[in-house]
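quick one, 269 residues, struct below
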Amino acid sequence: MGVRKALTIAGSDSGGGAGIQADLKTFQELGVFGMSALTAVTAQNTLGVQAVFPITAGAVIQQIRSIGEDLGTDAIKTGMLFSADIIEAVSKEIIRYGWGNVVVDPVMIAKGGASLLQTEAVTALKEYLLPLSFVVTPNIPETEVLVGMTITTLEDKKEAAKRLIDMGTKHVILKGGHDEQTTESMDILYDGRDFQYFTSKRVLTKNTHGTGCTFSAAIAAGLANGLSIQHAAALAKEFIQAAIENDLGIGSGHGPTNHWAYNRGKVLF
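---
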């Protein structure tokens, strides 16, 4: 099968817990060669986002073309795309190279509350990128923004997943981490026909910085390695559960998860 590769198109997290740093760590742990195209540089840590420095759409395009003209990729994961211009540019490059296995993590708000996606970019995300995606992985707040409805019940989640499929994506994984009414965290996979549920024990911790990035990166790694979407989702669920359960306990805010945990068990310091 040779070396499998995955490309993350996302922002940089100087604190190392989210963004391309989390993506590349996840790719490495799951046996995939990781590559990146930066969309923004952030100054952030466990306390929040102190500043965001966007990269021009032209610079993002050039990074992607450097990959496309030489290395190629077996899967793509998009994270913080920041602006409508960048979203449109990324979408055109995906079409240019005919890339599939596109995992869209519609990053909108950081753990500390800072907005990471401009308002007009939401429209561009729905118009340009979702129709190219193999799977989209929103949490509940992000789903509410994308589909324009309040989500409280399981039936709400299923209706929202159907609406996302109608926007053009092939699969939806609606994450349940924000639904704190239950003792379990349940993610829902929908392929336009059937629903599949992935549950895990809810971990009571504030150290969840980068969970969404890590989860979607794990899905991309699974797809790059030739797994079905069902198996990639199951792998990602196990990976992020281990990362949350064995957090590193660093920083004084929302600390990062432990990207080593899935392969090495609990790391003691």
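The chain has nine helices and nine strands.
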